[in-house]
């Protein structure tokens, strides 16, 4: 049997809900009436670009920088000023928002920005950096007089584009009023977890949430692979669990990406999912617990990436169930 992309009926549609759309419009009109902080967005990948657009649409002054400038250039059409260096982006900014690949990259980029960083600048660190590196980033902020906020976000491409992310945040009361319009522009909800970003309470909660998300994603791929191996129509499985406690929208959303062959553009890439899985494992090891499922999930993402699916949506972990490079 040739292993490949499964065929099936398109699942239920996903996209920006009317409620989220109206919520965003309300936010935008509200923000346009008051002076807003200037925000420097460092990193304009899948998430950062969407966040920069929503900040600009909400009436905030936005500068954006990305290592590959061509990826940031389209933001100019939305009123974002694209800069050539991190220092140029942060010069005079009230808020610096980092949304990069990992904590090490964030530290490198912030070091490049040092010449233009002003003491007292608010720094919203939104990259999923894990617990250990968050402490290092907070130390960097302290050394340079920045107000540090550990602020990872929950959500992928669609909620980012809709301004409907969930922001998990920890940091002092002092800068929260400055951050409020920023978080309101990029998210529909902000969950405060503490007053000291160095304690990484928001990042710890993010890792717990991501452990669940990645486990469900991996399980979805295995269910679809097993259905193919046994000659079971996936729709029979969906009908079986429909409306019951085992049913969930996320399962159907990720399944549809595989069934319909819509793995690009990625909402959250396989390589990034593997990185997050490794952060979860490292945090668990420091906490003295063993996570067998998380370890297996990290390996599934690694195999899918090795097969050539690294830039595809993390639902492509499905292909890790097969020995060959499936789907070609």
Describe the fold and architecture:
- With 328 residues, this protein is an alpha/beta fold.
- It is 49% helix and 12% strand.
- The protein has helices spanning 18-31, 46-57, 69-72, 86-90, 103-113, 130-143, 157-161, 176-186, 201-230, 234-241, 249-259, 270-286, 292-309, and strands spanning 38-42, 61-65, 81-82, 95-98, 122-125, 147-150, 153-154, 165-170, 187-194.
- Strand 2 (61-65), helix 3 and strand 3 form a beta-alpha-beta unit.
- Helix 5 (103-113) packs parallel to helix 6 and helix 9 packs across helix 13.
- Mean pLDDT is 91; it is low at 7-33.
Q: Quick gist of this model?
A:
The chain contains 13 helices and nine strands.
Beta-strand content estimate: 5-15%
Structural class determined from secondary elements:
alpha/beta
Give the overall form: globular
Distance N to C terminus: 14 Å
* SS field, number of helical segments: 13
- The whole-number mean of residue pLDDT values reads 91
Outline the biggest β-sheet: 6 strands, parallel
CA radius of gyration is: 20 Å
Q: Regarding quaternary structure, how should these chains be classified?
A: single chain
**Lateral strand order in the biggest sheet:** 3-2-1-4-5-6
Q: Provide the succession of SSEs.
A: HEHEHEHEHEHEEHEHEHHHHH
- Low-pLDDT segments: 7-33
Number of strands: 9
Proportion in helices: 40-55%
């Amino acid at each position: 049997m040739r292993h490949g992309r499964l065929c099936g009926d398109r699942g239920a549609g996903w996209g920006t809900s009317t409620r989220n759309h109206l919520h965003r419009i309300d936010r935008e009109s509200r923000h346009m009436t008051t002076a807003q902080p200037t925000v420097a967005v460092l990193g304009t990948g899948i998430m950062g670009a969407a966040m920069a657009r929503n900040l600009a649409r909400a009436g905030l002054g936005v500068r954006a920088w990305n290592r590959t400038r061509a990826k940031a250039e389209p933001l100019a059409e939305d009123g974002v000023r694209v800069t050539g260096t991190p220092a140029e982006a942060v010069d005079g900014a009230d808020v610096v928002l980092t949304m990069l690949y990992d904590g090490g990259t964030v530290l490198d980029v912030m070091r490049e920005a040092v010449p233009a960083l002003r003491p007292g600048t608010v720094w919203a660190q939104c990259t999923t950096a894990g617990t250990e590196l968050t402490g290092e980033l907070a130390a960097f902020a302290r050394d340079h007089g920045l107000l540090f906020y550990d602020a990872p976000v929950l959500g992928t491409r669609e909620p980012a584009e809709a301004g409907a992310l969930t922001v998990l945040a920890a940091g002092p009361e002092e800068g929260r009023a400055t951050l409020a319009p920023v978080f309101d522009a990029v998210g529909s909800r902000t969950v405060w977890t503490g007053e000291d970003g160095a304690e990484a309470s928001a990042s710890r909660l993010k890792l717990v949430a991501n452990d669940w998300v990645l486990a469900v994603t991996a399980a979805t791929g295995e269910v679809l692979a097993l259905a193919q191996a046994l000659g079971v129509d996936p729709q029979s499985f969906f009908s079986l669990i429909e409306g019951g406690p085992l049913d969930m929208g996320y399962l159907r959303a990720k399944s549809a990406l595989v069934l319909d062959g819509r793995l690009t553009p990625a909402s959250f890439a396989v390589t990034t999912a593997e990185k997050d899985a490794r952060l979860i494992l490292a945090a668990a090891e420091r906490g003295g617990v063993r996570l067998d499922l998380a370890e297996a999930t990290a390996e599934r993402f690694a195999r899918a990436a090795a097969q050539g699916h690294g830039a595809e949506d993390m639902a492509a972990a499905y292909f890790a169930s097969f020995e060959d490079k499936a789907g070609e």
